[in-house]
């Protein structure tokens, strides 16, 4: 008569021990994720050298220029149907006839990448004077003159700030990015393990409503 309770007690003790081990692993895994995230933040918050500022500046200029790339591609490939949808008001440039794109047409119905026709194309041409607001102009200049913009900004930094910029002994952007990528991959692996532990804890917890205290 006493065999069954002992078996049950033994099973409960085993489940309790397994729960405790998994909880401890979960705690240590979460702590390791926190450490890695803190190290990533430390590397990201660290200032950069002049050379690396130049690298980041190039990336920003390229990103700004990409906006004009996308706008120009839209202008070249956009199609607009008439209000009733029965015909095309303006078509992609590779489907327009020569007469529609010749210079003499501009005065009659300006619909061109250099034009700004609010009725025909609310977006306006990417090179249109009506579109050259501050944000669009910034993107356009980065698209047209990326090397000039970069060299002028870096000339001011090198000539007027120079070595006072500092940060030359800090890890480079390339080194930090490599380290951050490795840590992010490790975090992803640890988070997957965390999800496994949470699922296992939930499953064990459902079969053991009153686990032993840790």
Automatic annotation (TrEMBL):
<keyword id="KW-0175">Coiled coil</keyword>
<feature type="coiled-coil region">
    <location>
        <begin position="19"/>
        <end position="46"/>
    </location>
</feature>
<protein>
    <submittedName>
        <fullName>Uncharacterized protein</fullName>
    </submittedName>
</protein>
<feature type="coiled-coil region">
    <location>
        <begin position="173"/>
        <end position="207"/>
    </location>
</feature>
């Amino acid at each position: 008569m006493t065999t069954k309770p002992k078996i049950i007690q033994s099973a409960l003790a085993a489940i309790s021990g397994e729960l405790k081990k998994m909880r401890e692993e979960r705690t240590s895994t979460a702590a390791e994720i926190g450490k890695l995230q803190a190290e990533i933040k430390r590397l990201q918050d660290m200032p950069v050298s002049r050379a690396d500022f130049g690298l980041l500046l190039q990336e920003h200029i390229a990103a700004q220029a990409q906006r004009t790339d996308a706008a120009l591609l839209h202008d070249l490939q956009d199609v607009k149907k008439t209000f009733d949808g029965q015909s095309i008001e303006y078509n992609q440039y590779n489907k327009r006839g020569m007469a529609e794109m010749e210079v003499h047409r501009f005065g009659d119905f300006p619909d061109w990448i250099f034009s700004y026709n609010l009725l025909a194309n609310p977006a306006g041409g990417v090179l249109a004077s009506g579109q050259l607001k501050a944000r669009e102009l910034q993107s356009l200049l980065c698209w047209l003159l990326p090397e000039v913009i970069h060299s002028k900004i870096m000339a001011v930094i090198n000539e007027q700030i120079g070595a006072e910029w500092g940060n030359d002994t800090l890890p480079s952007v390339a080194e930090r990015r490599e380290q951050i990528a490795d840590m992010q991959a490790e975090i992803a692996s640890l988070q997957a393990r965390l999800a496994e532990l949470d699922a296992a804890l939930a499953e064990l917890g459902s079969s053991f409503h009153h686990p032993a205290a840790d």
